[in-house]
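Table S2 (text version). Query chain:
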Amino acid sequence: MFTGIVEELGEVTAVENLGDASRFRLRGPVVTQGAKHGDSIAVNGVCLTVVEHEDDWFTADVMAETLDRSSLGALTVGSRVNLERPMAVGERLGGHIVQGHVDGTGQVIERKPSENWEIVKISLPADLTRYVVEKGSITVDGISLTVVEAGTDHFTVSLIPTTLDLTTLGRKQPGDPVNLEVDVIAKYVERLLGSQGATR
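Corresponding structure-token output:
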């Protein structure tokens, strides 16, 4: 489980095509501290498993399903990525509960800069609209954010300078893809309410 608080802006240093999968080599000196084979690291909000690692890099295998359902398939050598290690028991939950299981992808539609923050408008797949509410939480490329406006086919978020400086959202331009994970609590509530209706 993650919190959506990005620890480090890493970089893709190699991509190996494995046929029905890809192996990524990623530089991230912070997240590799104490890393072990089999550990999880979120890459742009996607929970990946460490295969190999050294002092400042690790590799992870990404299967075709993940490449198809997320924006990881668009990564190339030199791409910057948001990195986060799993939350340790007893630590503060700074963002919200993030699983690292991408629900879909959106695209940056527009950016509106202000003096001290920036509003970013992002497209929203139709099947995720019901889970996104004003002032609710959403994960964008692994970043825990608060929804400012929830439309029928888009939503907006307000980004502070720290988020702009330390994450990929400071660099994303209109047309760029982003990974989206909606609040898992909303999905559980929907399933429970649906189950109650079916038994009545």
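Notes on Table S2: Residues 184-198 form the longest helix (15 residues). The longest strand covers residues 8-17.
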